[in-house]
Amino acid sequence: MNHTPAPSSAAPRIAIVGGGLAGLAAAAALVRSGAEVTILEARRRAGGRAASFEDPVAGGLVDACQHVAMGCCTNFLDLCREAGLADALRCDRTLWFIGPDDRRAACTPSRLLPAPLHLAPLLAGMRHFTLREKVALGLGMLRLAHWRARPEAERPTALAWLRGIGQPDAVIRLFWQPVIESALGESIDLVDVAAARKVAVDGFLAHREAADLLVPTVPLGALFGERLVAWLAERGVAVATGCGVTEFQRDSAGSISAVVADGAPLPCDAAIVALPWRAAARLVPDVVPPADERLAGSPITAVHLWFDRDCIDLPHAVFVGRVSQWIFRPADGPRGYCQVVISASRGLLDGDRDRLRDTVVAEVRSAFPAAREARLLESRIVTDPTAVLSVRPGVDAARPPARTAVPNLFLAGDWTATGWPSTMEGAVRSGRLAAVAAAERLGLECPGLAADLPRGLLARALLAGR
Q: What is the pTM of this model?
């Protein structure tokens, strides 16, 4: 067990169970509260799903699955700025699309036009669409922004709604599908139209910087598992790794009095459970809803490729009309390495991993001429079967808030009720919401959520305040 001891004091004690991004964000929010904070993480390294593994070709670390944020992820970016991690995020304003015919489209929102008119150059840059399809896409995005919420039981899926308003099949297949599935991690024929609307409004329409792509330039294991943990430790947070919590001890009133880790109780005045929902349900089944068809996971697959030379000449690209969805070339990554990410990958090519590898390699070689002569040295396929919470109609009713029926027990995790899909932003928001609730319980001060990107006059008028 790697344990960075916290100073002994009479301060209120808060135990955070789980050292993923949600737990780390909760601890960061509490560093100035006056509480004695301890993070208990079962794995050898903190960071949760934002993890890395040893590069089998060049050594060093590569990410198990590429994580990116957008300009609209105000709480994630605020945490990175506060903890001194912002220097490790590369901002890509240009989104590269590669069409089925391998034609490239460099799509860059305007920095001069007010939102949402700033998207006009982005739409104009999509060379794989006709003018009619571009107009249909723009109008469809505005109609989605004005969609009025209904009871969850009456909500259609994003695909059904888009077809219902007459979006062309090509626009659905070559824009809506890759964008929605990569943003939400779930198939377009399963996601709630309300979640798709959030992608359109918050991710594109509301602000000129909303669609900026923020890509980590160092491995996630180093960024969160080392740098963020070190920043927390410098501020008195105890981080215990290799330390799994098996149960809670409760007092006669039912409140949490201690967490039990490695057979030893750690007394606490409040506890935050920042675990994936299945693990949380096993630990505290009385406060976490069971995993059923409403609270289910969606898989994401990363295909790692090592060629004998550098052959990917773009920092990233969105593949449209193919099995591959995104390709990333790390700025400081090993020579010849790239990663292809495929969201909502359940049943992908009937689970045939060799076929998946061959298909992805063929698509990469088709899109990048330099890869056609390159020799594939190594490949690895990594699939997380429950990478994100499936945002299907009805899921919001099943997502629990930070506060629970136990007065001093709180929940965090991107699967809780944050108002955001299961993303790094959702994880950070959940940690901050749980930290605020725990601080209020103990009579402490704790900062709340960072504000969303402000909307200009035109965006407010066109979006009708929605």
A: 0.93
